[in-house]
Automatic annotation (TrEMBL):
InterPro entries: MAP65_Ase1_PRC1 (IPR007145). One of its GO terms (biological process) is mitotic spindle midzone assembly. Pfam families: MAP65_ASE1 (PF03999). It comes from Hipposideros armiger. This is Protein regulator of cytokinesis 1 isoform X3.
Length: 574
């Protein structure tokens, strides 16, 4: 920018110098002409004076014209500034500020342009104000609301116009919502009146139900009165429904306790729905009849309640002490007071169970998973499962592996839920008289102790059996009863590595499954059938265990609660 200004200044100086040079050339040329003509010196001076005067007058005239232009521009700037200030005030905008130091001509142009823009904005705002006022008047008449307070004479600001637009939009939404509310409320009122067998008996009710919807005034007062009417009708309807539902529940409970036959129940089935006056009256008559029967069958009713109590005790995992805490359960004097105590207790238990149903169902799920886990543990120690008929062994192992993963996860989820419940209710959540965590821990401990006890019993049994075999020898087994060995029919003897032992020596050795000590059988015994047992040997020289010993030593084949696999048997010797 500075570089451009310097170039302009240099150009101006050059033009000035050229003008002076041109003037000098002109005067020199004039003097030459005058000299050739022979004009005297004094006249030449006069003529030079005339030239000077003409040039001066021309320059003065040009200066005057430019001064006049400057004055007009300054006057226009002043006028534009005043009008612009007024417009900025009316339009509620910041006063116009020219950036930098513009020339008079540029300033006048900018101000004139800004004034035209402000005039256009003022006109548009006035038109927008008029349009919004018309819409506001129409909506306010429909909604019975006061008009929007705004000065029509002044020019509104952008913020005021925006607020006015929002107000008009809000009025439209209010009109739409009130109309929708009126239509929906009217429909509900009609339904309630039909349910209650009620006919419109006031002018307002008739206006709502019978008149055209467009004729209804959507004022706040009318809407409030409409809601009040609906509330009154719904309260009456709710009261009737609550009474009828209570009567139905009472009837159903009395039916169950009194063991009313289905044929007799079907006689009043038509009044088991609805809440009209005639239905309510019929239900009350049935309750009165059943109450009279209940008083005549007091013992039967109390025993039915006790059955239900026992069911809720099981669902809530009550301990024996908690159950014994309700002494009337064991009272044999069947009186009305005893019945009331049982009724109060069953209501309390029912509410208690429903309040914590999610937790009780979670504990029940854990109990079922735990029982299934114990069943799998029991089956794991059963040698007969190796028969694997129909792939049951594989299915059980998959289910058992899945259960071993899901059971701890379920325990953790229940612990988190129960901790939250205990923090909320500031009391422990009890299962069978114990906190859940303690209860689960006790179950696992009992399972561990039971496994340890079974293990010790098996070890003691094996020890006694070994001692017996040391003294008397092992009991003979019929070859065709052996598991995993081929029958002894000639030609069907199974051969392994082309070696077959067809006879048993009298001094055959017996090696314990988990020991290396060798014992001698004192007596050689043959099977009762008189046939010779067939034994097969492997290429490694190790003998396959006899089928009889497999059944006798099945307890020795369990390690940490699981049956050893067939690969474990391969390394054992007899």
């Amino acid at each position: 920018m500075v570089h451009m200004c310097s170039e302009v200044e240099v150009l101006g100086e050059v033009l000035a110098e050229e003008s002076i040079l041109c003037l000098q050339k002109a005067l020199t040329h004039l003097r030459e002409i005058w000299e050739l003509i022979g004009i005297p010196e004094d006249q030449r001076l006069q003529r030079t004076e005339v030239v000077k005067k003409h040039i001066k007058d021309l320059l003065d005239m040009m200066i005057a014209e430019e001064e006049s232009l400057k004055e007009r521009l300054i006057k226009s700037i002043s006028i534009c500034q005043k009008e612009l200030s007024t417009l900025c005030s009316e339009l509620h905008v910041e006063p116009f500020q020219e950036e930098g130091e513009p020339t008079i001509l540029q300033l006048e142009k900018d101000l004139r342009t800004q004034v035209e823009l402000m005039r256009k904005q003022k006109k548009e705002r006035k038109q927008e104000l008029k349009r919004l006022q018309d819409q506001d008047q129409e909506l306010c008449e429909v909604l019975c609301m006061p008009h929007y307070d705004i000065d029509s004479a002044s020019v509104p600001s952008l913020e005021e116009l925006n607020q006015f637009r929002q107000h008009v939009a809000s009025l439209r939404e209010t009109k739409a919502s009130r109309r929708e509310e009126f239509v929906n409320t009217k429909r509900q009122i009609i339904l309630c009146m039909e349910e209650l067998d009620h006919t419109p008996d006031t002018s307002f009710e008739r206006d709502v139900v019978c008149e055209d919807e467009d004729a209804f005034c959507l004022s706040l007062e009318n809407i409030a009165t409409l809601q009040k009417l609906l509330l009154q009708l719904e309260m009456r309807k709710s009261q009737n429904e609550a009474v009828c539902e209570g009567l139905r529940a009472q009837i159903q409970e009395l039916w169950d306790r009194l063991q009313i036959p289905a044929e007799e129940r079907e006689a009043v089935a038509m009044v088991m729905t609805g809440s009209k006056a005639k239905v309510k009256k019929a239900l009350q008559l049935e309750v009165d009849r059943l109450e009279e029967l209940k008083m005549q069958n007091m013992k039967k009713v109390i025993e039915a309640i006790r059955v239900e109590l026992a069911q809720y005790w099981d669902r809530c995992f009550y301990s024996q002490e908690q159950r014994q805490g309700f002494a009337p359960y064991y009272d044999e004097d069947y009186t009305e007071n005893l019945l009331q105590l049982h009724d109060a207790e069953i209501v309390r238990l029912r509410n208690y169970y429903e309040s914590h149903k999610e937790l009780f169902e979670g504990v029940q799920k854990w109990e079922e998973s735990w029982r299934l886990f114990l069943e799998f543990e029991r089956k794991a120690s059963d040698p007969s499962r190796f028969t694997n008929r129909g792939g049951n062994l594989l299915k059980e192992e998959k289910q058992r592996a899945k259960l071993q993963k899901t059971l701890p996860k379920l325990e953790e989820e229940l612990k988190v839920q129960i901790e939250m419940w205990e923090q909320e209710h500031t009391k422990p959540f009890v299962v069978n008289g114990q906190k859940f965590v303690e209860y689960v821990t006790a179950q696992w401990e009992m399972h561990r102790l039971e496994k340890e006890r079974a293990k010790q019993e098996r070890q003691l049994k094996n020890k006694k059996q070994t001692e017996t075999e040391m003294l008397y020898g092992s009991a003979p087994r019929t070859p065709n009863k052996r598991r995993g060995l081929a029958p002894t029919t000639p030609g069907k003897v199974r051969k392994l590595n082309t070696t077959t032992i067809s006879n048993a020596t009298a001094n055959s050795t017996i090696r314990p499954v988990f020991g290396g000590t060798v014992y001698r059988s004192p007596v050689s015994r043959l099977p009762p059938s008189g046939s010779k047992p067939v034994l097969t040997s492997t290429c490694s020289g190790k003998r396959t265990p006899r089928a009889g010993r497999h059944g006798a030593n099945k307890e020795n084949l369990e390690l940490n609660g699981s049956i050893l696999s067939a690969r474990t048997f391969k390394g054992l010797q007899i």
